[in-house]
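ERR on first pass: missing label on line 2. Operator R.T. fixed the label and resubmitted. Corrected input:
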Amino acid sequence: MALDEIKIGGLGASRKRVEDNRFIRGKGNYVDDVVLPGMLHMEILRSPLAHARIKSIDVSGAWAIPGVRLVLTGEMMAARNLAWMPTLSYDTQAVLATDKVRFQGQEVACVIADDPYVAKDGCEAIVVDYEPLPPIVNPTQAMAPDAPLIRDDKVNQVDNKVFDWEVGDKEGTDRAFAEADVVSEIDMHYPRSHPSPIEACGSIADFDRSTSKLTVYMTTQAPHIIRAAVSLVAEIPEHMIRIIAPDLGGGFGNKVPVYPGYVASILASILTERPVKWIEDKSGNLISTGFGRDVYLKGQVAMRNDGKILGVRMHTESDHGAFFSDAQPSKFKIGLMHSAFACYDIPNAHLTATGVYTNKAPGGVAYRCSFRVTEAMYFQERMIQAAADDLGMDQAEFRRVNLVRDDDFPHRTPFGFLTDSGQYEKCLDIGLEAIGYADFKQEQEEARKRGRLLGIGISTMTEPLGAGNSREYDILGIKMFDSAELRVHMTGKAILRTGAKTQGQGHETTWAQIVAHELGIPADDIVVEEGDTDTAPFGMGTYASRSTPVAGAAVAMVSRKIRAKARKIAAHLLEVSEEDVEWELGRFYVRGAQDRGVSIQECAMAAYSNVPDGMEPGLENNAYYDPPNLTWPFACYIAKVEVDPETGVWDVLKMVAVDDCGVRINPMIVEGQIMGGLTEAYAMANMQFITFDEDGNCIGSNYMDYLLPTAWETPGFELHEVVTPCPHHPIGAKGIGECATVGGPAAFVNAVMDALKHTGVRNIDMPLLPDRVYGALTTGSDISGMPPVKTEA
Amino acid sequence: MFPSRFDYKSPTSLEEAISLLSAHEDAKVLAGGQSLIPMMKLRFAAPAMLVDINNIPGLDQHGAQSDGSYRIGALVRHADLEKSKTLGDHQPTIAAAAPLVADPIVRTRGTFVGSVCHADPQGDWASCMVALDGSIVAQGPNGRRTIAVDEFVAGPFQTVLAADEIAVEAIIPPASGTRKGGYLKLERRVGDFATAGVALSLEMSGSTVAKAGIGLTGVGSATISATEAAAALVGSSLDDATVDAAAEAAAAATSPRSDHRGSADYKRHIVATFVRRLLAQHQPAEAKVA
Ligand SMILES: Cc1cc2nc3c(=O)[nH]c(=O)nc-3n(C[C@H](O)[C@H](O)[C@H](O)COP(=O)(O)OP(=O)(O)OC[C@H]3O[C@@H](n4cnc5c(N)ncnc54)[C@H](O)[C@@H]3O)c2cc1C
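pass 2 clean. output:
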């Protein structure tokens, strides 16, 4: 008899997360928990200024402190050709500043000492003589004709531009606009935010002179890429490098790049011949490591009077900070911004993008999204709402007119991606029903008469998750596939390793469920291990919701390889030919004689004790998976809010999420991902941003200024589900880790805009702080750009 | 957290604590540590010695006294006030503020008196003290003295406490008439300091205001006592015109700055709005209808 899939923890089982066993007992093993004999501690001295020439650095005070073992400066790094390192976007980034500091918080020197207190004392004793230069804190300043040159280190750099880039059909789009009945225009800004994992970054570098081997414990989402990068930058042979990513306290894209602290700790270990630990504090993390977003948009939608969209134009200006270190693997300068409008049937689109350098921290990481997809979908859904309003058409109806229909797949998106599946209108209908849309117009009208402001905001989107396919996606030339290795022991238990790296997603739980589904081995009998480059197969790591689409697919594929071999063994054990062997979950049996069978566990034992002649013993294999396409989950998020007209404070009355991420491996984990994502979306819409004053001081480099929402203010979410399996994924799954962060913000903002519609206000840039909402309400005008910031006198 | 090097003492009597403070330069009292420790972490503060008063008995009580005054000892935590079942009957302003100070974690450690000693213009308790006309009792080598709160707070993060004085308790004087009041705070998120906060205290004789106090949080370089606004209320029955006048006067008493919490104009507007909302809770039914 086939096994009960839910009972063995297979697909669809809301299995409790096995990793939580150690996390909730305080038994997690994070980088900071690792203690090596003789370990030293490193602290980074950061620049207090946003833009300044370094005239001199006097480190003698630090050396004078007992317990200080090494002081690193840019000059010392330069002597070893390590003052600059390559970024993932083919630019360079300073490891320790030599000539200038280019953002507040930039790494200037490192002190390595017996304990972290002394290391910090050492940093305080370093005297740096700075000559201040005028700081540039936004794209307008950056592109001004007389703007000071930030990247004077680069030979051919004459201005502060990083790139100009375009995609789409300009002529076709121009024609569409010429033919349009109505053109809607809206400008907006997606503010700078930060992934802000609870665990900041850190590393322990341990160079062993006797073996020439470098072991680095590191907070990284992509250990194998780091190994390659370290090998290239530090010129250490790759087999002499072992990167270990132990438990990670969240990543959200922040732990994809290589940071100066990692590099400095490695050099410090080589020089001191002792393990060197660097643990970044929260302020260091917020002020210097990979931020997200910071993009301005000019958007235009061309429509017919009946609501049909004929074309869209987008122009983005992105602020990359001092170094172009966007962590993204595509050939596209502004990431997957052109995935915008993928869920709508729009014949023409054109996008132009300009990127600039500013005196702000570098990064541009994909904060819980695929490479600028969050901006793309936010812009899309805000443009859609403004277009519906400008046309005077109901926002739900407007979407319905333009959404791609179920029978229209595969569908070419306005900018040329290929989507393959979905039931968009069904999701929209479920959402509208759940929020009570039919009666809302009347409710809103009546409330307004009594001085209450209600609004509903909708966000519908499909996003590209799961880079790559190797034709289009690579990191520094390394193709974006992923891998899994499965070893089934003789007693039928197994160990699975992948090239991904879990950091909260629950791989230890869900990968075992995929194996259980494919092989009928109970999930509890499978351990999952990731993150050690000496043991895990090569992989590109976990970000951009790519693990289930790519590594998860590899897990299914390697399981199938194992099953194929087990089938041969089963035939041997059952003494029939392979063609006569049938499979049901957990066992093979003889066709026509279902009671004559062997379990997968019996096959495993035989693989080590009784293999057929000529067969290699053992039951293990690996698989590399190169996905044929991205996966395209769809989501419909609808928020209902009330705005207090006296204060501008807004409350979420109800929030409905309808997600279609294909087949759900572990529904509970999927729901957790959606809840977490919506919480982040709410934070973005409501309270979160990093801004800079005119001197380039970072406002938002601590948790008093940079707000993470808590359970107190986060609204409740009502989740709904639609399942349209992914046609090309082995188990029909699509990415889900990021949909809610990507699609959620627009729902909240659209809802507040809907509540304010009668005032003529069309846009308030995030975050929708009460004073901005109140300001828009009372003046009837849009509020754009960053909240005002004054330096304290 | 890696602060600068410091000495740590944990005396078990006030006398011992005071002599430690007298004997050591640059020694600081440690109460709940919710302001001092973060500053040490950031190395904005680097005291040579911490004199931890948490092991001194007798400082953790609060309650109404026989003379009608209300005393809050130096080790009474925000959470003690928040959870008190009787506080609201005596001190509605403080009871309303308690759940709005910081977040639940900070409230379990942070102290009322420590907050007043910290003299942060964004501290919620100093505004309540100002509205309630409270005082701080300080003890030093030469005994005790009682200091009215508006004198006690000398400026942002400054008090008149001598280096070897410890604030041992806060006193709220008895009310003349029935005590009413409340606290409203606009915050971006739980645990955030106030964008603007208003503490209101009313002492009612029948439906007439006998005495009033209004303290404002986060809208100036120090805690603000809106004395004109309070004076406008005295003798009135909180009719709409008086309420409006008080709201406008309170807003006029502020000198906020525009920052990431909101613009100066907005903060002024919130102060006026909150004064109105607080007073509306105590308007007689007739006044509300009118
Ligand atoms: C995340 C966070 C959020 C916060 N949010 C708010 C908020 O919204 N509103 C608000 O009002 N506060 C807020 N606070 C501050 C908090 O209320 C503090 O607890 C309070 O300001 C200080 O009290 P404490 O007992 O912790 O004092 P400590 O930190 O121990 O001391 C503060 C200062 O006062 C001195 N001191 C303390 N007690 C005495 C005494 N008895 N005699 C003499 N000197 C003394 C100390 O030497 C030190 O200089 C927040 C704090 C944090 C960490």
